[in-house]
Amino acid sequence: MTIVSTPPAPVAQPASNAFKAIVRSLMPFVYSIAAGIIARFGYHVANTTVIQIVTIAGVALTIVLHALETQWPAIGVFLGYIGAPVYAPSTKVTLQAQLASVEAQFAAFVAQSEEAKAMSTPSAPPPVVVVTPPPVAPTLVTHQ
Hints:
The longest helix is centred in the first third of the chain and has 30 residues, at 14-43. The chain has helices at 14-43, 47-71, 95-120. The chain has a domain at 14-79. It is mainly alpha-helical and 144 residues long. The relative contact order is 0.09.
């Protein structure tokens, strides 16, 4: 008797996808830093110029590489990994679901407050207490 089992399909792990996303976001800046270092040592440019080279080249490379990757997926090699990261399905809540949840909470609050009012309503009105000040004895005032 032969038992054949198929291995489970690999499932993308969120931790590795987060790492992949970070690498793919920062890789163009690695190239830009290399260009800035070469410019710094090869041509003796100022540090402010190196910072500008790194910033402008990093942003431009990020935009260009991600745009070209949609057309030619092999360009993903220059981003550190081929293919964009895949994440687990989102558990985002729609606006309608949020509104329904808030309405349910409000209805529960109203019902609770009505119940509290019904329990605290006395059957007879409370007695009215009138406080009268004590009589003041007359005092004799004399002037000298």
